Amino acid sequence: MKPKPIYVELPIHTDMESLWEATQRPDHHEKWDLRFSSITYLPKKEGNPQRFSYQTKIGFGLRIKGWGESVGSYQAKDDARTSSLHFGTDQKISLIREGRGYWKYKPESDNTVTFLTQYNYETRFGKLGSLFDILLFRPLIGWATALSFDVVKRWLEKGEQPWAQYTRFFTHWSTTILFAFVWIYHGLVPKVINQHPAELSMLQQVAPVDTQTAIMFVIIIGILEVLFGVGWLFYRKKRQLYRLQFIAFPLLTVGAIFAAPEQLTAPFNALTFNVALLVLTWVGWMASRGVPTAKNCKRKQGD
């Protein structure tokens, strides 16, 4: 199966020259494009394409180094501009062997420019590489392209620096994944699967019920916690979840201390644990406003 080209489109409320400079100057381009760690233009002879080198950090100290060349053109009829691109890398660890694509800048009314790209590439590692590309890598790099487009949009429209946007983005999603793990783990392991004695004891201190009833209530509470944790992964309105945690963590802290005050002398007790989570809730809350997202972009032509 031949993979479809990656396509991303986004209207940006700015003038043509500002967008052209933000996307064509390498020192600006590398600020907002998540796909590249650095871009360096090479010496250019008049009349030849602009050649450049790029690097992409992939973690664990590894980098993909590649080459590229671009040609910018101006279309007089509709004042649109196009920048064609040819890129690739000789590094054997890179899934991408070589590719081609373009950026297009279409002026619209009310000082808006539609910024779009389409590109495709050849892969290494035979059928296994093609399968990995279709199942994981291509969706991931398409998402990174769309996220980067939203970052440059916010930069030009609102003046938000790309580094600040990415800091907010990764802080928000780090706390999101953390809270999902905490709620799912603490609901599933000590309540649904194990019914830990400490959980049963605290419940019976608050509500005088027999052991079987306590087990049933602990399991129900655990299921609710698991569902809340799953909500962190899939519910879009994350700020509502943060609001619930601003209420839940103080109540859980007071309830745990009331049920078993002796635990305050133990290491990593309910007070220190829940206060830490409350602070992280505040950090996540502060980072969750105006987070850039790939969902603002069109991903198919004609959408």
CATH superfamily of the largest domain: START domain
Order of helices and strands: EHHEEEEEEHHHHHH
Q: How many strands?
A: 7
Q: Which radius of gyration do the C-alpha atoms yield?
A: 26 Å
Q: Mind summarizing the main beta sheet? A: 7 strands, antiparallel
What is the helical fraction, as a range of percent? Answer: 40-55%
Strands ordered across the widest β-sheet: 1-7-6-5-4-3-2
CATH C-level class of the largest domain: Alpha Beta
Q: What fold name goes in the CATH topology slot of the largest domain?
A: Alpha-D-Glucose-1,6-Bisphosphate, Chain A, domain 4
| Uncertain stretches | none
Under the CATH scheme, the architecture of the largest domain is 2-Layer Sandwich
Transmembrane segments: 134-152, 173-193, 213-234, 241-260, 266-285
Protein name: DoxX-like family protein
Organism: Oceanobacillus picturae
Keywords: Membrane, Transmembrane, Transmembrane helix
